[in-house]
Amino acid sequence: MSSEEKMSSEEKRSTAQELSSDKTPLGQNPTDHDPESTRAGATPWLKPLTDGHGRATLFVLPGAGAWPSSYRKWQSLIPAGLDVTVVHTPGREDRISEEPYTDVSPLADRIAKHLTHLIGHADRPYGIFGHSTGALIGREVLKRVASPASRLLAVAASPTPELLRIAPADSSDDDLLGAMARWQGTPREILADPEIAAAFLAPLRADLAVATSCRKPLAEDEVLDVPIIGFAGTADEGTPTEAVAAWKDWTSGPFDLHVLDGGHFFPLTAGEEILGTIAERLLP
User: Fold this and answer.
1) Summary mean pLDDT of the chain
2) 3-class SS of residue 259
3) Half-sphere exposure of 48 (CA within 13 A, CB side)
4) Taking the alpha carbons of 72, 75, 78, 82 in that order, is the dihedral positive or negative?
5) CB–CB of 156/202 below 8 Å?
6) How confident is the model at residue 30 (pLDDT cuts 50, 70, 90)?
7) N or C, which end of the chain is more exposed by having fewer CB within 10 Å?
8) 176, exposed or middle or buried, with CB in 10 Å at 0-12, 13-18, 19+?
9) Domain at 49-282: CATH architecture
10) Residue 152 pairs with which residues in a beta bridge?
């Protein structure tokens, strides 16, 4: 193959993004004719899927190595009255040139700052949904946001901090690619090309380090005072239902467990059930 026929690294990074999502950046309405029109509240850190006029807000924290545009699949499933905003951390998609975080403390501090600024301008309840590592980060964020508007933590495919067992961030590329294949949430085209896969491995390694920094024993001062909803997948071998059920000990409020069809990435295919359950709790 000639050098002209080979894809450059930049082209492969672009291909990786196209394989994981469509071409419309989060924070823009794919039906808008004006490409520069953005949704209310959009920042590099917060990518709204809705117009910002709902009666409650759900902040979404993707799992380790996941890209926020994956949740565009939820856009047509969002119940009326609910705003949904995806948290977009450095090191992926249009922030891929930024250094990703490797420790949960500064990351949760920064996310909490952005959430506090946004919810401080709106008199309405909010909750956090976190998938896998995103659930662990979400718990840390809720501890930092001192607001009466905090109403819910929803965790999916995530063990509690004391049950966390995760691949080391310094695992070999082959080991991490094998883990990605077992999770069944990554397109085959990405796994088959080392250069394209590299665009995913870097943020994945950083997120695994963040997850490791979330590990801690259960203690009185770590228990949240907001309700928790747990979502488990029937075929999620890495996070069995009992691991998700253990979140009941991490709140002084109510806990509900929902078991949905699918493997580790079931939130991407069970969005209607997840959003409907959360909306019942958040919408007044």
Assistant:
1) 83
2) strand
3) 20
4) positive
5) no
6) very low
7) N
8) buried
9) 3-Layer(aba) Sandwich (3.40)
10) 127
Phi first, then psi: what are they for 89, rounded to 5°?
-85, 160
Here the tokens at position 171 are 């695992």
- Let me know how long the chain is: 284
Model pLDDT for residues 204-261, shown as the tens digit of each residue? 889 999 999 999 999 999 999 999 999 999 999 889 999 999 999 999 999 999 999 9
Contacts of 214 (CB under 8 A, 6+ apart): 104, 133, 136, 137, 139, 140, 161, 164
Q: Evaluate whether 199 touches 12 at the Cβ level (below 8 Å).
A: yes
Residue 178's pLDDT band (cuts 50, 70, 90): low
Q: What is the pTM of this model?
A: 0.83
Q: CA-CA distance, 10 to 189, in Å (whole number)?
A: 16
Tokens of residue 78, six digits = 């969002």
131 SS3 class: strand
Structure tokens at 194: 């080392």
C-alpha to C-alpha distance for 242 and 238, rounded to whole angstroms: 11
* pLDDT for residue 114: 94
Helix and strand numbers (H, E) in the chain are: 8, 7
- Residue 1: pLDDT band (50, 70, 90) is very low
Record the tokens describing residue 182, joined without a space.
């077992």
Would you call 152 helix, strand, or coil by DSSP?
strand
Residue 3 has pLDDT above 60, yes or no: no
